[in-house]
Amino acid sequence: MAGEPQFVEHARDGDIHVLRIANPPVNTLRTEVRAGLLDGIQAATREGARAIVLMGSNRGFSAGAEMTEFGKPRKPPSLPEVFDAIEQSKVPVIAAIHGNALGGGLELALACHARVASPGAQLGLPEVKRGFVPGAGGTQRLPRLIGLEALRLIVSGESVTPEEAQRLGFVDAVLGGDLEHAAIAWARENAGTSFTLARNRTDRIAGYDAAQFDEAAKKLTARSRGQESPLGCVAAVRAAFTMPFEDGLNVEREQFTRLVQGEQSQALRHIFFGEREAQRIPDLPAEAKPLPVNRLVVIGGGTMGGGIAMSAANFGLPVTMVETSEEALQKGLKRCEANWERTVKSGRLSQAEYEKRRALLSGTTDFEKAVGEADLVIEAVFENMAVKKEVFARLDKAARPGVVLASNTSTLDIDEIASATQRPELVIGMHFFSPANVMRLLENVKGKASSPATIATATEVGKRIGKLPVLVGNCDGFVGNRMTGKRGPQIEKLLLEGCLPQDIDRVMEGYGMAMGPLATGDLAGLDIGAAVRKARGTVAPVADAVVAAGRLGQKTSKGYYDYDENRKRIPSKEVEQIILDLAEKMQVRRRKIEDGEILERVLLPMVNEGARILEEGIAYRPIDIDVIFVNGFGWPAFRGGPMFFADRIGLKAVRDKLAHYAETTNDPNLKPAALIERLAKEGGSFATLKGAAKG
Ligand code: NAI
């Protein structure tokens, strides 16, 4: 009809018909697309087509189901109805894939009679990463095409190239040149052959070996840390091997329905959309443009400087590492090389790509010369204010006017660092996380003078080198470290009242954390916290006693745990005795503490501090905090982050629990934050918090 958007375009090249999905930008399979496909197939059949080429317009084939239709009743036709029409069609339907064929998009292609693809396409079933399983036959059709390899693809959710897909057996041809043209030719040539639909194939699922399947499944789910969707995928794929097609579809449907409504899937979607939202800076004027950056200079080639330099080179940005001595410089460069070489050895990086990256990294001890050539400087020297100010004064003199000077400090005041320069508007924090070449999170820390262009530059460069930049305000510890710092006192109390380090870590790891807080302390080194406490004049009886016993963590092979030669942690008798002695001395009566209480007393202090951070405007939105924890602090994405955790409990309950623990543990820090009090009273939540929480 004239004037109405066409969601599926129908073209003809002689007796080969082309159906093009046209739902920009990524061709999600919304109702109109599904209806259009059904109509198109019927029309092509009526007109006597010999074959139908099904493809996507614009950027790709299809990114799958429309997420906004989730949880709402779907208007017909459903995807399975469309797939039935394809599978019953006498005219073969050939999927021609470019760009992304993901989720429901790939399932659509799998229902077709054959699949061709152009190089550079990405094919995958990422549903597991959103917390559910493919729900339109993907778990039944893919195993019938490629056997047990399907389990790996579906449980990992990773996509593959067309070449890999062809090797595995779910792409029939990889076609160079113009895809439409090539696919029409391919269709014309092959239209006469008899295609076997995926659902009718039995060769790849024959000879099902339960033991072999179990072993593969066990390996693939070993690191799911309590996430349910990988197990749902295993159950659905197993059905493909053990049941008739229709029964398998039912198993898949049950898993899909159960998981998609579950809390984990909601959490994963919360983070998925949140990661996009957190990169938008609400008060950044539209005219703020990032400054051009063609050379990065990193000051300091230590743990962090090396990782930052690698991140730049990994993403094609030329980078110079500056060190104080030739020896330190060589050490810094060698550490980067060794890291890349390990990746080459493991097969995840080609030698050619390594050499390309290595060529982008240079090093010098000539501070002034290097800084004079910089478009952006990131400082990563020792964490000491006097040292930082000296370095920034020197940077200010050596750098060209207008060049942004960033600091990777994890605790120091950005404004004070900026005060050492004549260009405070060009100073900003760029707080990377260790290992900096691996961790995605980048807390960009806005000083009171940081200009919009400076903020835009730090954001832009962060994205360019593969990071997820989240802009936060300047305060002690910024967002992430400030919040994790607040769980310390409760951990101390838990240890005295009845827990051992392994109890707390077991609960936190059972929740899904990559590593429990005490094991994390051992990894980072317990002397760091001890130095901070000394500087601040605070005490932590257990931690102090552990450090006093010479137990500094993994680097001394003992901390809260003992460590064997493989760095495997072993519960420590000595630490247990230290704790028991202290409890006795301090007259704390030890009792059995339930797991639920441990979890709450470790997490709620962080939630409370998160609320204060919102009140102060240090974070723009609750989602920013959740994104920070998932990407920088090993918080499992399927749990959605600390503020999501609080919302799940409900803020009334959070307020009551905080007030309860504040009183019973005599910890004024747990007195509910004003924002929590207010939202609890209003019946509100962090998710529905509108506008600024500040004030
Ligand atoms: P590091 O001690 O491994 O490296 C510091 C390097 O800076 C040393 O190699 C030193 O020779 C060099 N250096 C000192 N003064 C210099 C100067 N004037 N010019 C050039 N090079 C100089 O320290 P690390 O761990 O890399 O930390 C660096 C910064 O990153 C600190 O501000 C720290 O707080 C921050 N940070 C550290 C994290 C970590 O997990 N290690 C995480 C996030 C931030």
Automatic annotation (TrEMBL):
GO MF, one example: isomerase activity
CDD domains per the UniProt record, alphabetical: crotonase-like
Coiled-coil regions, chain positions: none
Any Pfam family: ECH_1
Domain 3-hydroxyacyl-CoA dehydrogenase NAD binding positions: 297-474
Compartment list: Peroxisome
Entry keyword Membrane: no
Catalysed reactions, semicolon-separated: a (3S)-3-hydroxyacyl-CoA + NAD(+) = a 3-oxoacyl-CoA + NADH + H(+)
Single GO biological process annotation from the record: fatty acid beta-oxidation
Domain 3-hydroxyacyl-CoA dehydrogenase C-terminal: 477-563, 598-683
Protein family per UniProt: Belongs to the enoyl-CoA hydratase/isomerase family. In the N-terminal section; belongs to the enoyl-CoA hydratase/isomerase family.
Subunit-structure text: Monomer.
UniProt cross-references to PANTHER family, sorted A to Z: 3-HYDROXYACYL-COA DEHYROGENASE (PTHR23309), PEROXISOMAL BIFUNCTIONAL ENZYME (PTHR23309:SF49)
Keywords on record: Fatty acid metabolism, Isomerase, Lipid degradation, Lipid metabolism, Lyase, Multifunctional enzyme, NAD, Oxidoreductase, Peroxisome
Listed name of the protein: 3-hydroxyacyl-CoA dehydrogenase
Biological pathway: Lipid metabolism; fatty acid beta-oxidation
